[in-house]
Amino acid sequence: MLIKNVSILHSGQLLPGRDILIEEGKITKVGRDLKDESDDEPIDGRGKLAIPGLINGHTHLAMTLLRGYADDMELMPWLQEKIWPLEAKLTEEDVRWGVKLGCLELIRFGITCYSDMYYFPDTTAQATKEMGLRAFLSGVVFDMKPELLGQVEPFIRRWKGDELITPAVGPHAAYTCSEETLLREKEIADRHDAMIHIHLSETREEVDGFLLSKGKSPVEYLDSLGMLNERLAAVHCVWLSPEDCYLLAERKANVVDCTVSNLKLTSGIAPLNTLMEADVNVCLGTDGASSNNNLNLFEEMKVTAIVQKNAYHTPAAFSAEQVWRLATQNAWRAFRLNLGLHAGALADLVLIDLQKPWFCPQSNIISHLVYSMSGGVDTTIINGKVLMREGVILGEAEIMEKAQERFLRLTS
Ligand SMILES: [Zn+2]
After folding, report:
1. Can you tell me the distance from the alpha carbon of 365 to that of 145, in angstroms, rounded to the nearest whole number?
2. For residue 268, what are the β-bridge partners?
3. Cα of 381 to ligand 1 centre, how many Å?
């Protein structure tokens, strides 16, 4: 497949008139006047910008079904009174259509890979593969449902080595899993070189609880179990001490910031400038659509930059370039993926239509992507396959219809 005459970004500048050659799921050449040996019709890239596909570092994708179902509540009552009772009724079919609905949204927001923790991970994996996305998937584990722990390793064995799906381990949080459960999960992750995906230090109550009961912060507690390393994706990390930040840096753990979800649930604002000064690898996620309420990483970038400026009382904190780096290079590092527009990288890329008023005048394109992007994702390609072309995704209407049916069943 050949993309002709597209613009690409180089050191923040727009380079027009480039061709991108894709063969067997990889980018094989980027340059001028490239030829394609295949019979595929080339994609006309004129007026468009190619960027590497984005990674959404934290989702519960099937929760798209619960979008708008319970808003404007605090985290614990929201979970206890609304989300958990509804989740108790979830079936595999609900998850299948919730995941497909989520995939549609990801494709439309230029997200080619997501990292998820939820129920029915096999169904999530199948539905994701059918949709053609790349994903790091883990089945959620907590002690209230002890049967979930036993399902972790069989799931990993089934999906290990898959082209698109990378299985991971997903203890819900340090306050919902016992020490024994966490250690068991760590052992499985170590054995399979898998990532651990966990909610960490999300609320002040969580941290206060640990300090009182264990004399340690949740970060120090996980460290005492040997769980902080480069395969850890610690989600939220809102309530961190400077010592926690340095400990995460020293252990090379990754932090996934979910600014919008944290603001909506009033959990707080993560100390991202402190984390970055400590040299922690921070990337971005949206969290589930029931606490965001969309999966839009562009919106996440803008809100994150603006909120961090306010948290540190200076507009100089967090530039557009910095937040763009969180969404791209830092995410590639956290998930150990070879992405980017260069030969040898995975052919996960997105074409953005620059003929939109919010990209005009064409000056600082990274600033436009972070601060003014309001749509324009035109084409999404994953693993060398076109999943959306000129804004059209095949089968979209049917998926939305099924998702609506599942929502009505769940809430009836
Ligand atoms: Zn979450």
Report:
1. 48
2. none
3. 27
Domains and CATH numbers, the chain: 2-53+340-396 (2.30.40.10), 54-334 (3.20.20.140)
Q: Do the beta carbons of residue 353 and residue 378 sit within 8 Å?
A: yes
Q: How distant, in Å, are the alpha carbons of 202, 221, 293 from that of 226?
A: 20, 9, 34
- Cα-based distances in Å from 52 to 147, 157, 166, 295, 318: 39, 30, 19, 17, 22
Q: What is the dihedral of CA 367, 368, 371, 375, to 10 degrees?
A: -150
> Tell me: the pLDDT tens digits for 22-62?
999 999 999 999 999 988 899 999 999 999 999 999 999 99
DSSP character string of 223-254: HHTT--STTEEEEE--S--HHHHHHHHHTT-E
Band the pLDDT of 18: cuts 50, 70, 90: very high
Q: Which amino acid makes up residue 255?
A: V
Q: How far is the CA of 106 from the centre of ligand 1 (A)?
A: 16
From ligand 1's centre to the CA of 290, what distance in Å? 10
**What's the mean per-residue pLDDT of the chain?**
96
- Residue 202 CA to ligand 1 center (angstroms) comes to 9
pLDDT digits (tens, 9 = 90+) for 300-333: 999 999 999 999 999 998 999 999 999 999 999 9
Contacts of 224 (CB under 8 A, 6+ apart): 216
Decide: 278 and 305 in contact? Cβ < 8 Å: no
Sequence-distant (6+) residues with CB within 8 A of 215 are none
In this structure, the number of other CB atoms found within 10 A of the CB of residue 14 comes to: 15
